[in-house]
UniProtKB/TrEMBL annotation:
<dbReference type="Pfam" id="PF00293">
    <property type="entry name" value="NUDIX"/>
</dbReference>
<dbReference type="Pfam" id="PF15916">
    <property type="entry name" value="DUF4743"/>
</dbReference>
<dbReference type="InterPro" id="IPR031804">
    <property type="entry name" value="DUF4743"/>
</dbReference>
<dbReference type="InterPro" id="IPR000086">
    <property type="entry name" value="NUDIX_hydrolase_dom"/>
</dbReference>
<protein>
    <recommendedName>
        <fullName>Nudix hydrolase domain-containing protein</fullName>
    </recommendedName>
</protein>
<dbReference type="InterPro" id="IPR015797">
    <property type="entry name" value="NUDIX_hydrolase-like_dom_sf"/>
</dbReference>
<feature type="domain" description="Nudix hydrolase">
    <location>
        <begin position="142"/>
        <end position="293"/>
    </location>
</feature>
<dbReference type="GO" id="GO:0044715">
    <property type="term" value="F:8-oxo-dGDP phosphatase activity"/>
</dbReference>
Length: 332
């Protein structure tokens, strides 16, 4: 029988990138195994992503006319690319040409999850440097933004007085098929606001009434972590996912039942807190959704310092300071 997962185990599965202050040797080894994608402005050079060296090796093989110039500093282990065009639009076109070439040549498994959704790559001061197909962002290790909404109902007879709507991901999804998830979740496309994303995903994934979401979904805060990819994401291991999620709570009336809409969700279950705890302990939840659920339990007073030995770890690690610029900095 597999060992039951603690809250720390769940945190480790999601927030797996070493900390410079707490794990300096592991952190140094990890950075040495990566190249840092950098950008340069009038203030100097700064990082925007962590790239596997194997990705860099393949990028060098892309014809220069397609990918544009690559500037590599072997002493600093830094890579600069897509920087020559003067406008965001032209830089986006250059990134698109490069990633399309990699996709057509089947260079990376992760690109089999191509979604035709453009995600923003941010520079300093809130500037969007360029946009990129969401599946390809993994190759460059840049910031990823999304929303997660947890819907629940009041239930006086249930443990802790609530039940939670828990979806099971479709078995045909390229990433985490069949795993449990938060009620609604999705990535922010370029220039989409978090709440606009909530409205879109609540309809697409759960068929929730728009007026109900608009009037009652409440922003609970941001969750930030750095995930280290394994093969269950649908691609190669080792990609770095620095992520920021805007987290929302939504209390639903008893007669509103989420229903699958776009095929990404197989079914919804109304679960007690104890049932969700058991699912978490047995590893049935997608890693980032698991820790966002822990955060919900803290917010609802279900997990406290008295009953959760890793309470402080939950608080600290889900508010991680991230190494790259973007709109999450406005909340730090």
């Amino acid at each position: 029988m597999a060992a039951r997962l603690t809250s720390k185990d769940l945190l480790d599965r999601c927030d797996g990138f070493p900390y410079a202050d707490r794990q300096p040797e592991r952190y140094a080894r990890k950075l040495d195994s990566l190249f840092t994608l950098v950008w340069e402005d009038e203030e100097g050079v700064y990082p925007i992503g962590y790239m596997l060296k194997s990705v860099f090796d393949e990028l060098k093989k892309v014809p220069l006319a397609i990918r544009g110039d690559i500037v590599f500093d072997p002493f600093a282990n830094t890579v600069k690319m897509f920087h020559k065009p003067a406008t965001e639009k032209k830089r986006t076109e250059l990134a698109a040409a490069t990633t399309h070439y990699l996709r057509l040549n089947q260079t990376f498994k992760i690109l089999k999850g191509w979604r035709n959704e453009m995600w923003p790559i941010y520079g300093r001061n809130g500037d969007i440097l360029f946009s990129m197909e969401r599946a390809a962002v993994a190759l460059f290790g840049c910031m990823r933004y999304g929303i997660h909404l947890i819907a629940y109902v009041q239930c006086s007879t249930a443990p802790h007085g609530i039940k939670m709507w828990v979806p099971k991901r479709s078995q045909i999804k390229t990433s985490w098929p069949g795993m449990l998830d938060n009620t609604v979740a999705g990535g922010l496309t370029t220039r989409e606001t978090p709440f606009d994303c909530v409205m879109r995903e609540a309809d697409e994934e759960a068929s929730l009434p728009q007026h109900l979401v608009r009037d009652h979904a409440k922003l609970a805060g941001l969750v930030k972590y750095i995930y280290m990819v394994d093969t269950r994401t649908g691609g190669e291991e080792g990609y770095v996912y620095p992520e920021c999620q805007w987290v929302y709570d939504l209390e639903l009336p008893d007669d509103v039942i989420p229903e699958p809409n776009d095929g990404e969700v197989e079914s919804f279950m109304l679960c007690t807190v104890d049932e969700v705890k058991e699912q978490l302990a047995t590893g049935r939840w997608k890693p980032n959704c698991a820790v966002i659920t822990l955060d919900f339990f803290v917010r609802m007073g279900i997990l406290t310092r008295k009953n959760e030995p890793y309470f402080d770890d939950i608080e600290r690690r889900l508010r991680r300071k991230l190494p790259f610029p973007g709109p999450h900095e406005d909340e730090e």
